[in-house]
Amino acid sequence: MTARIVAAIVCLLAVSAPARADLRLCNQTESKVGVSLGYRDTQGWVTEGWWDLKPKGCETLLSGSLAARFYYVYAVDYTRGGEWGGRAMMCTRDPEFTVRGIEDCLARGFDRNGFFEVDTGEQKNWTIQLTEPDRTPKAGPKP
Predict the structure, then answer these.
(1) Region at 56 (left for phi over 0; alpha for psi -120 to 50; beta for the rest)
(2) Where are the alpha helices (DSSP H) in the chain?
(3) What is the pTM of this model?
(4) How far apart are CA 72 and CA 25, in angstroms?
């Protein structure tokens, strides 16, 4: 076979390959970031962590078609300090964890953190972009 025919076959195979459906998170910051994920499955609420993402790196958090519309994320900036969170309180733990249930975190020996909600719109594939928080100093009164 000629090189052109081989190249055409390789291109055809790449185009006809089935698309993967995953929940991915991309760290668009200049910092190393730790990520935990919360979601509801057939058995109830579950939180998992930690995924360590390099600056400008991406990671697959869940493989396969998404089964829920809403997912929840809590992330920690290991380089500069700070976090990305929200109002959905869920259980976490260091260093690696899978926790069933979101109630009584502290009484069960877990930490309790606020996660932000991600609405996937019932898509089967979703990528979350974690971006730099607004670090612009707030203007205050002049002396």
Answers:
(1) left
(2) 3-16
(3) 0.79
(4) 12
